Each structure stands twice: as structure tokens, then as C-alpha cells.
Amino acid sequence: MRKLFFLALGGLLLASCSQAPKQCCAHRHPCYAYSSTIYELNTRQLTDEGTFAAAEAVLPELRECGIDILWIMPCQPIGKVTRKGTLGSYYSIQDYCAINPEFGTRADFEHFLKTAHELGFKVILDWVANHTAPDHVWTQNEGWHYRDSLGNLMVQYDWTDISKLNYDNQDMRNAMLAQMQWWMDTIGLDGFRCDVAGEVPTDFWNWAMDSLRVNHPKMFTLAENEDKAQEFTESAFDMYYGWNLHHLMNEVAQGKKGVEDLWGYFAQCDTTIRPEAIRMNFTSNHDENSWAGTEFERMGDAASLFAAFTYVVPGMPMIYTGQPSGNHHRLAFFEKDVIDRVENAPQFAMYKQLNELRENNRALWSNEEGAPMVRVAADNDAIFACVREKHCERCKVDNTVIAVMNMSDKEQTVTLDLTGYEGTYQCICGKEKEMVAEETMSLQPWEYRILTK
């Protein structure tokens, strides 16, 4: 029955995806990126089989949830020398242009990609340019990797299953670009998420991405880095990791930081990072889930509020494998460890609602296509209140979104100054509400309200 449901749903989605895409006014990034939500797909843990064929059957469910961009964790063969655990780390790559047999064949991946594209997804691949597995064939090339005084391959940090590449070597750079081009030209990817991007020289990224965009002007790129967001997003990357915001959300949920710290973060970003750089907002990812804990461990009862928060603030929201399914456990990184699939998980309905909210409210779109976030004056310092308002005659948009969020574990009453934003709004809960200049409301612990006009 489940397979029949997905097949029927897939047909409906194919029909809907044939409609003309929404137009955008700005062109710094691919038009599709502005309204998109990104999903990190952990192939090993998504299904019992842990294959691309099995993951393909889940694609209609992800599309129903409102996902637009699929970020596939590395899918190449994993090194065997100094391998960690039984199956090893995705990020210890033995061959850039091959498919890990654990996940299936190249034909399986290409069929997965074809189905994803037919359903309307864009698909980007996690690219590991900083290092290879120690048994990658490139280690036989003189000068392509760092070596110590005794000639031994060098590792970084506690990553004992990798060997760091030497970007002083132009031959290695040329080969790296050629591998990336193969995935774009031959396989048909839509872009890359670049692992530990800050460990690789910026001039390589600029050169590589500029070269790839000659034939793929709509490719989408994500850097796992925030410290270099200003320079990375000048040319090479569309989006950067909101690491600092993520850690700050954890601290607010744990009572260590508060609303003023959040506004301080956004004020700093407004002055240090170019306005067209898209920040990726997230409550979990493969690193956080496996090593720091699930969003429920880190955020407790605030997990749902902060999921909504990632949709309200500027940037693009990201969902990790298992989050819409109600997964409540840390996934082993080097072993097989399938996500929890809770029947009728409330998280699925929540994320679907939030994705529809983002899609249907232009003010919440990313950066140039969305609206700036303005603080709403509130008489309670436990309340995060903001408005995003988009008016554009050329785009035929007249849209306002107000968000009021109780960032505490206690019930709070707040009076908001909504002068200039009065009117009839639709609450995310489905009810209409008439908002007045001095609006007073009470919110339960970690409750949020999002209203649109």
C-alpha cells in the first residue's frame, strides 16, 4: 500500500512540477534558490536498505513535505586503510568518480537523479576537496598530499582516516576540477555542498566555480563555513553555514542566552556579511546529530519553535534526514543505524506547514527576493518579535509576515507596538486575527505565532 501511495502521489507531483516556475526579479543566485528549502539526505540511514534505489521510493514523500533542494552526502567509495568503524566515514573518499557499492551502482544513482529531477528537485552533492582517503590513487602522485619529515601522509585534527591535499600543486587542482566537471557534465548534478570549505584556498573555489558556471550558470553552491562567508560568497558560493546562529539557538533553548543575543547576532551579520549571501539556518545536521545530539537533546521543548525560527529569519532553512519522520536518536556515523520512522509524526506536518508558509509568502524568501527582518518593539524581553514586509510592483507582491515567539520555558504576556502593521492577518494555525497598533497576547512556554497578510 505504501508503494502504491507513493506511485500515485508521484504522478500528482509530476503534474504539478510541469507548471511554470515562479519568476524572480534578482539574479545573484538561481531563481529557484530564493524560495527553496534544502534537505540533507543521509543515504545510509534514510532507509532499511540504505541504497539509492530505496531512497528513490522516499522522494515523493519528501516532495510532499515541500523540500526543493536535495543535498546528498558523499556517495563515493570509502577508503579501507585506517577506516573508522565497520562502514567508514562518507568523508574518506577513495575514488571521486565512482559510486560506493554500499549504496548501489552508478545506474542506481543516475536513476535516482532522473526521478528527483522529474519530481522537481534540484540535487547537489557533498564534495570533499580538502582531503582523500589514504588509499586514494592520488597518494601515489608526488606532491599531491601533505607529508611529514619522514614522508608519511598527514592527517588533520582527529581525522585519522584521511590525508590532506596540497593545494600548492597545480596538477592536483586541475584534477580536482576535472572530477567536479565530470559530475556536472556527465552525471547531471545541480551543484555542490563543499565540506570544510574553509580549509581549502578561496582562490581555488573561485576558479573552480567560475569554470563550472560557464556551462552550468544555474548551479547552486553551499560552503560549510561561516568565518569566510564574506569572501566565499563574493563569487564562489551562493550559501554559507549559519554555524554561529545554530549554536546560539542551542544556548537560548538551554537558558544560557536570550533574545538580545539573537538580535545582536543579526546586527553583526548585517554589517560584516554581504546582503546577498544566503545563510543556511538549521536545527540539526549530520555532525550535530551524531556528535552533539538530536535537536530534542539540545533544544528540548524548544525544538519546534526553533524549527519555525529557521523559516522566519533571513536565509534558507535546512532539514536533516529523519527530522520530518520524528527521529529521536543519534545516528551512528560509521555504522548502519536507520532513522526512527514514527507513524503520523507531528514533525512531518510541522515541516510541511512551514514549507508552505515559506513558498506562499514572498517576504520570507531568501535575501534580495525576500524582505529585511525588522524588530517589533515588545515590553517583554523573553519575546522575539519581528516583521518582514515585501512590496514590489514589478513582482506583483504585497506581503507582510509577523512572528511572535516566546523564547522561554514559562508562559509570557507581551504587548507589541504594531503601528503601521495593523490589519487582518491569517495565523499559521488557520484562524484570522485582527491586529491592532498595541497588540497584547499571551504565549505558552516556547509557543510561537506566525501571521501573514
Topology:
Elements: H1 2-17, E1 38-41, H2 43-46, H3 52-65, E2 69-72, H4 106-118, E3 122-127, E4 131-132, E5 163-164, H5 170-187, E6 191-194, H6 202-213, E7 220-223, H7 229-232, E8 239-241, H8 243-253, H9 259-272, E9 278-282, H10 286-292, H11 295-299, H12 303-312, E10 316-320, H13 346-360, E11 373-375, E12 383-392, E13 397-406, E14 412-417, E15 423-427, E16 432-435, E17 438-443, E18 448-452
Parallel strand pairs: 1-2, 1-10, 2-3, 3-6, 6-7, 7-8, 8-9, 9-10
Antiparallel strand pairs: 4-5, 11-12, 12-13, 13-18, 14-17, 15-16, 15-18
Helix pairs in contact: 1-3, 3-4, 5-6, 8-9, 12-13
Structural notes for this entry:
The protein is built from 13 helices and 18 strands. By secondary structure, the protein is an alpha/beta fold. Strand 11 and strand 12 (383-392) form a beta hairpin. The longest helix has 18 residues, at 170-187. Residues 1-21 have low confidence and may be disordered.
Rg computed from alpha carbons, rounded to a whole number of angstroms: 22 Å
Strand content: 15-25%
Number of strands: 18
- Average pLDDT works out at 93
Shape designation? globular
How much helix is in the residues? 25-40%
Strand order of the largest sheet: 1-2-3-6-7-8-9-10
Q: Helical element count?
A: 13
Report the biggest beta sheet as strand number plus sense, adding barrel if it closes. Answer: 8 strands, parallel, barrel
Q: Uncertain spans, ≥5 residues at pLDDT below 50?
A: 1-21
SS-based class: alpha/beta
The N- and C-terminal alpha carbons lie at a distance of 40 Å
